[in-house]
Task: inverse folding
């Protein structure tokens, strides 16, 4: 009986903790769903407004280039040319562009032929505030209104210079919002359901173990640490073998026959350790640096999915080839996330996704694929960006010679605050001489080995 009493106490403690955890988990999921929906709705609204302004400006400039006469009436040559231009506009999410006359009535519309009743529809009440806020003849006004009483719609207007007409571009937000809801709701529901099941199974298992095998576990604790350590090493070796294979597969597509990935690993480690010494980032621990060193080797694995015509072209890329090259961060992220979903939560895979997806983002927001800026770019990616550019500058390619170390350093410093995080550049300047040493070692010796770097991780 002396053993039953503490077990009963543990049972109620486990049940109480389970109840609290379930409540917190469900509440957090619901709050998270609401926040995600609100954020997505806000992002969708801003993106649609920006798209409308871009469509309105571009289409207005196109129509203005037609050298139209000032007066435009239905059936005139002006009208026919404008109508043809409007009918050719293709917009997403059921959006459309139309032209209004001087009284803000529909003059040209892409569906005018099938719905002639649209001619002359008065839209003054929908664009009055936008028009009154304009201070220049060719200024584009962007806003939102309750258009045709079926939800939030976004419109942009711009006067067509040299005529008595006005261009209006319209997109509904309802379709995009419904898509975001359809994506987030099942995701959060699944997350909450799976979480509750996991909590229940965890609590049940804990109670069973506590009741039946508590004294056995106490005796086994001495050998448990060694067993866990052995299994961890086995998992680490398997994980590293997979990542090493991916890194070398990507490296085989590169025109650089040197130890490119090995150098990137070492450069990234040098920068991270210097940032750690500077003490401005609490997340930069020894373990974090350890993961970054390995993750940096995967920064360009997405190039496996890039066409050879673009990847191995010796000359300057055209626009289509540049866009093909810029696909590789997303390809890499998709590949790594597939591994993440199979292996479960792993700091190295998380770091690898951040590095591969964001290392071409720039501090001023002009990079790709998402045009992130400043500290919105993960620190790991900001570090690898400097390491990658330095190695690219100082390496010989079929289309360029290797740049001297001093010139490469000057280029990186000139790009601080635009391409690179100024703080990472400051760290680079403190270890630039060691960068040069790594580079010279790679040229003079074959001892620099990516496999060696991964083996060091397994024995750490």
Result:
């Amino acid at each position: 009986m002396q053993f039953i009493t503490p077990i009963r106490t543990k049972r109620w403690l486990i049940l109480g903790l389970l109840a609290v955890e379930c409540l917190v988990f469900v509440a957090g999921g619901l709050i998270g769903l609401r926040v995600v929906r609100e954020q997505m709705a806000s992002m969708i609204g801003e993106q649609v407004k920006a798209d409308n302004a871009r469509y309105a400006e571009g289409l207005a400039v196109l129509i203005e280039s037609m050298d139209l006469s000032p007066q435009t009436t239905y059936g005139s040559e002006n009208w026919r040319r404008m109508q043809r231009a409007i009918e050719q506009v293709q917009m997403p999410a059921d959006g459309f562009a139309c032209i209004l006359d001087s009284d803000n009535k529909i003059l040209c519309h892409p569906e005018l032929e099938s719905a002639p009743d649209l001619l002359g529809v008065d839209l003054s009440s929908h664009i009055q505030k936008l028009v009154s806020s304009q201070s220049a003849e060719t200024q584009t006004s962007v806003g939102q209104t309750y258009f045709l009483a079926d939800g939030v719609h976004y419109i942009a207007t711009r006067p067509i210079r040299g005529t008595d007409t006005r261009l209006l571009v319209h997109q509904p937000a309802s379709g995009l919002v419904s898509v975001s809801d359809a994506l987030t709701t099942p995701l959060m529901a699944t997350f909450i359901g799976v979480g509750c099941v996991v909590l229940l199974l965890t609590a049940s298992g804990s109670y069973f173990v506590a009741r039946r095998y508590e004294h056995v576990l106490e005796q086994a604790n001495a050998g448990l640490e060694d067993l866990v350590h052995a299994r961890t090493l086995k998992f680490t070796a398997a994980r590293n073998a997979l990542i090493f294979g991916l890194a070398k597969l990507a490296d085989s597509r590169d025109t650089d026959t040197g130890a490119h990935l090995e150098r990137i690993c070492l450069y990234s480690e040098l920068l991270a350790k210097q940032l750690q010494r500077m003490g401005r980032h609490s997340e930069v621990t020894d373990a974090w640096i350890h993961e970054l060193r390995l993750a940096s080797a995967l920064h360009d694995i997405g190039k496996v999915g890039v066409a050879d015509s673009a990847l191995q072209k010796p000359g300057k890329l055209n626009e289509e080839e540049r866009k093909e090259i810029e696909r590789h961060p997303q390809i890499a992220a998709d590949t790594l996330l597939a591994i993440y979903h199979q292996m479960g939560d792993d700091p190295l895979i998380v770091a690898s996704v951040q590095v591969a997806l964001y290392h071409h983002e720039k501090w001023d927001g002009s990079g790709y694929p998402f045009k992130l800026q400043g500290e919105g770019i993960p620190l790991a990616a900001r570090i690898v960006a400097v390491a990658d550019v330095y190695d690219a500058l100082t390496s010989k390619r079929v289309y360029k010679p290797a740049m001297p170390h001093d010139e490469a350093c000057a280029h990186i410093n000139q790009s601080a605050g635009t391409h690179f995080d100024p703080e990472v550049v400051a760290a680079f300047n403190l270890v630039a001489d060691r960068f040069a040493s790594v580079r010279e070692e790679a040229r003079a010796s074959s001892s620099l080995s990516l496999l060696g770097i991964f083996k060091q991780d397994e024995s750490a």
